Amino acid sequence: MKNNDIKKFLKLWMAGRFRRLDYLLITKLYTPFDPENILFEFNTMPFDESRRSAMYINKTAMIDFIPANCKQSDWSKGVDIERETDSMLATIVLERDQIHFCVWKDRFPKQVSTTPDYNGIPKRLREGMYIPHRTIPEL
User: Fold this and answer.
1) pTM of the full predicted structure?
2) What single-letter DSSP state applies at residue 26?
3) What is the mean pLDDT of each successive set of 10 residues along the chain, which is 139 residues long?
4) Which of helix, strand or coil describes residue 132?
5) What pLDDT sits at residue 110?
6) What does the alpha-carbon distance between residue 76 and residue 113 come to, in Å, rounded to a whole number?
7) Tell me, what's the pLDDT at 29?
8) What whole-number distance in Å separates Cα of residue 109 and Cα of residue 136?
9) pLDDT attached to residue 73
10) β-strand 89-94 against 23-27: which pairing, if any?
11) What's the angle, vertex CA 77, arms to CA 47 and CA 11, rounded to 5?
């Protein structure tokens, strides 16, 4: 995939195509991407916390197939483009060997806690939210 292919994709997205797209990751094996060449033609905006969150929650089922060497992108380091037809916002994070493109269908997603709430387990058990594990005797 060449720089011009990325520009064609971005132009099509800006024109209203790919409306169901949430997230796109493109990796480059040999020739590195040229971010300045790709973004030159687009009206990009730097990250602004009043416009969108710095955290993107990828709900795509294919997320499990992303190679381990592709690190999670820092969305605050990307640039935003806005589609004029429907005001849909997307962020592009361009690196030499990969491009992350996400569409902000929810610009301020609810923060998800990554630390377990062990203190709340007894209360949830009383409320019937957890079913205790039962061992089944072998026959």
Assistant:
1) 0.72
2) E
3) 92 96 87 91 95 82 56 86 96 90 91 60 62 52
4) coil
5) 79
6) 19
7) 75
8) 41
9) 76
10) unpaired
11) 75
DSSP 55-120: ------GGGGGS-TTSPPP-GGGSEEEE-TTT--EEEEEE-SSEEEEEE-SSSSPPPPP-S--GGG
What length is written for the chain?
Answer: 139
Site of tokens 């037809």 = 85
In which region does residue 128 sit, left (phi positive, over 0), alpha (psi from -120 to 50) or beta (all else)? Answer: left
Nearest to 103 by CA among 83, 118, 74, 125: 83
Q: Are 1 and 65 in contact (CB under 8 A)?
A: no
Which of 7, 6, 34 shows the shortest CA–CA distance to 96? Answer: 34
**C-alpha torsion sign, points 84, 34, 107, 49:** negative
